Amino acid sequence: MNAISLLDYAGVAVFAATGALAASRKQLDIIGFLFLAGVTGIGGGTVRDVILDVPVFWVVDHTYVLVCAAVGILVFFTAHRLESRYRWLLWLDAVGMSAYAALGAYKGLAATGSPVVAIVMGMLTATLGGILRDLLAGEPSVLLRPEIYVTAALAAAAVFTAADLTGLHEAVSSVLAFSIAFAIRGGALRFGWSFPTYKGRPGRRPEDIP
Q: Within 13 Å of residue 185, how many CA atoms lie on the same side as its CB?
């Protein structure tokens, strides 16, 4: 298994675990676990492949769906052992996001040859699964948390693209991109790194508009 394939399976499995953890926090049944694991594990990659107009990865290889199902079942029987499931969700999300940022950039570059498309695809692949998970599970969205999130995926996708274009081996490019993303997102979770927020007057509520 090469570095890209390893990132692909790892990203799917880790994201699926975060979806199943979200299901455990909502005390869903086994079908709920499988659904959230599947949507989170393959959601970002599905949208990426549809946009790139390439065969959807899990349709070509059903193993990805089986990985999501296996992870969902495993978490169903073991989630109660975790002391803080939301903390685990956030850190596993950071791992999955880091892996998928590099993978999305790789697939975007392979499909189009465009560095811009590669970076956008890396960012999209890395963040959309977590956003869908939080939306469906009614969890606080990782996108709206104060710590840096999308920027970590953007940085990783840019690093992978730049490294690949300079001729580095894909394994080296992947490790660099993963390390950058996890360092940024991990630092944000551990130390609360964030950008300055908008300080102007908030918008009026719809009901207050004449």
A: 30
